[in-house]
Amino acid sequence: MTDPEQADIVRIGRDIFARCRAAQPWPLSRAWLDERAMRWSMRDERVKTQLFRFVDALPGLHTRESLNRHLHEYLGEVAHRLPAPARAAIASVGRGGIAGLVAPFMARFGARRLARTFIAGSRLDDTLATLARLRARGLAFTIDLLGEAILSEDEADAYQRAYLDLIAGLCDAAATWREIPAIDRDDRGPLPKVNISIKISAMSSRVDPCDPDGSSRRVRERLRPVLRAAKTRGAFVNVDMESHALKDLTLKILRDALDEDEFRGWSDVGVAIQAYLRSCGDDLRGLADWAQRRGAPLWVRLVKGAYWDYETVIAAQNGWDAPVFTAKAATDANYERQALFLIERRDVLRPAFASHNVRSIATILAAAEKLGVPRGGIEFQMLFGMADALKQAVAGRGERVRVYTPYGELLPGMAYLVRRLLENTSNQGFVRVGFIEHGDEERLLMDPASAPATPAPVAGTGFRNSPPADFSRADEREAMRTALAGLRLGRRWPLVFGGRAVDGAEAIVSTDPSDGSLIGTVVAATGEQADAAVAAAHAAFPAWRDTAAEERSRLLERVAEVLHRRRWDLSALIVRESGKNWREAEADVGEAIDFHRFYASEMRRLALPRRRDVPGELNEQLYEPRGVCVVIAPWNFPLAILSGMAAAAVVTGNTAIMKPAEQTPVIAAELMAAWQEAGAPAGVINFLPGVG
To answer: What is the value of pTM for the model shown?
Structure first.
């Protein structure tokens, strides 16, 4: 499709800004005071950070003493930056007395008042009153039941009951509401008055990308009654998107549910898609193809995304490519591209655009105008408690505006509250720049694609951990499945010392702890064989001690290469022999690889003589190998700990005898095989399993 003209975008954007100025709150009204408070909190980044940390911790502070202590510890650090009354209050809390009695009440009162700005109510009757006020202003709603991580099936049952009660209560109330055509109809007919948003992760405590089929089955057991109740009562259900790790799983569960006969033709259902994800375009095209095959349209709420900081930090910690665009302008540009695609495919994907960005909204309206989209053919969504003037401005143009309205306990909802505060006060956030600081309109309406590229951060040149597997990716799940299916089990492994494979009469039988099936048989050393192994290690020590540190380091790096090449097979073996889950097993292998690489790099550093000169003297500090090391490792990290202890001994010029735990001898035998493949000299590393 042809992109809208910049002139049309600017024309519509200026009209929206003008309407926003006309809808500003009256001086001294609550909204006006809240805006001033938000502006004050943004003046000092340090104050803002400490304030938000305190707010985030508040739900867990159940005693007056703990609340006072946290208040003093968080805000005491920045007291000198606060206004005089606040500074005096913080100081008095630290001293105790009457302030120590009043402070908990005032802190909770202030937090609850702040929470009510972004949360509609903690009880259904309170929330219904809020919804009535929204509808009176010509605004539709979608209700989000607040809650964070589900840790038990009892909690999941409670959330399911809460959703069912919410649908029943809202639908009973909606039966008495008069129809408002601007928000209760679109170009295709009536719309549900009741609209709820749900999170897939609230439907089970066992939602795991490692097990997409099992996760889908467990979630749908609780999701199905919620969808059935909504369909029966004429309510709309939208599935929220959460972290990137759950994105593909969320889409799978949604498709699995809607492909069931009971829901196949139902169209009052949707999903949120995050434009800050690089995969956003592919996801939308996949949904369009699926909806076409299904024969019923799907609503799509296009959002920018609320977990940018989390996603970038997790990616950096794990050494993964960031799944999100790292520049705000790139996200804005992608949002516009995908919005135009949704308008073009509104036959199968019915669009709802969630944004507080006037440029984005103006672009969408200009595109809809150019394509002749009828009034009501698109929808805009905005957050409760944010940019109210913008809501009125867009609704005033005759567009349908739906308000994302959280409902639930105020203090437990603090995690949601902190996310909203961060959005409101972000240095680049449109709400802050456009509606609080009243930035330049021409700049705010610029094409984000014209923004200069942000240079990528330069990675350090030192040691970096091996990236762990990302089992939200189908290719990595398939690699693990293939490795598990292809494991060679049942082999007999010999002792290894002095470069020779040595058999024996006694053996350790290793079995899968889950079903007792045979993993392998490993020869168990006798006392005489132990003496022979020690003698072999002693004999190899002098030559290995005198081997250059560089060569010892290269040996470890070759072992790491072997382990890396066999990463999936070793991970699968750990799953079978030790009973670890996929993530822990693969992480065990990654840690083993890292030990070899890190110790190799450290040995190069430690091998450099350190001068300790004084005038007239030459003094050097050196490290000397000690001899034979015996490595006795536990079963719970069968590869990582054994690798770390053995690698440290060998790279520093010692020889080593590996005695693994009797519960996991086969993975240790594979480690010995890696040393041999890497070219370890005879007697430098020896394998001596035994009972105990």
So the answer is: 0.87
